[in-house]
Amino acid sequence: MHPDDDPPPADAATALQLIRKQRGATARRLDPDARLLYWPWGVAWLVGFGLFFLRFSPGERELLRLPSWLPLTVLFALLLAAAAVQGAARERAHDQVTGDSARRGRWYGCAWGLGSVSVYAGLVRISEHLPHDLAALLWSATAAGLIGALQMAGAAIWLDRPLFGLGVWISVINLVGTIAGPGWHALVVAVAGSGGILVAGALARRRQRERHQP
How confident is the model at residue 25 (pLDDT cuts 50, 70, 90)? Predict the structure, then answer.
């Protein structure tokens, strides 16, 4: 044995405890912090859709005088930042993972990127022919609907029941807000949507801690 090597465990109980600790440390490295996967999206929705509500309130009112382009710009900037934080967290945790799991993650990430770009490219051509309030509803409802559908798809890939529940929640409130109409949709998504994402992140983090306890 090399002089710098740790001595072997003295008994079976100590060896078992060491194995559990090492297994837990490995699981923590491969399991990204759930708060980094959820909370950036919750903040993006709260601020971005909140600005939509303040600028395009029900009845075409302006609760806060803002340029018409600002809410959408802020929303997309925050969504891109959230995607970057999530991607970095997953990449750091899964940089040593290979095989089917890594392939699923890459393909799912491509679905998010290409799906979003293709859908929003069409919205650019359509929204310029709509009044500002209807254009805002079209953008916000499409963004929420796409994210809800992709979350349910991701849950189906990894058999993640809580993630599927969040996707269902987002899809339902998106439907309710769309039926309520311009202005109200942004308020519903800003409050109920971001709240659901933040709560889901907190619950997921608690499950991680319980799962990683030795």
Answer: very low
- 57 three-state secondary structure: strand
Q: Specify whether the CB–CB gap between 212 and 25 falls below 8 A.
A: no
How big is the chain by its Cα radius of gyration, in Å? Answer: 22
Q: What is the pLDDT of residues 96-136, one digit of tens each?
A: 556 677 777 778 878 878 888 898 889 988 988 888 888 88
Cα separation, 8 vs 5, in Å, equals 9
DSSP character at residue 63: S
What is the C-alpha separation between 194 and 82, in angstroms, rounded? 13
H-helix or E-strand spanning residue 61:
none
Please list, residue by residue across 116-151, b when 16 or more beta carbons sit within 10 angstroms of its beta carbon and e when fewer do: beeeeeebeeebeeeeebebbbbbbbbbbbbbbebb
| Averaged pLDDT, 186-200 | 95
- Count CA within 13 A, CB hemisphere, residue 67: 5
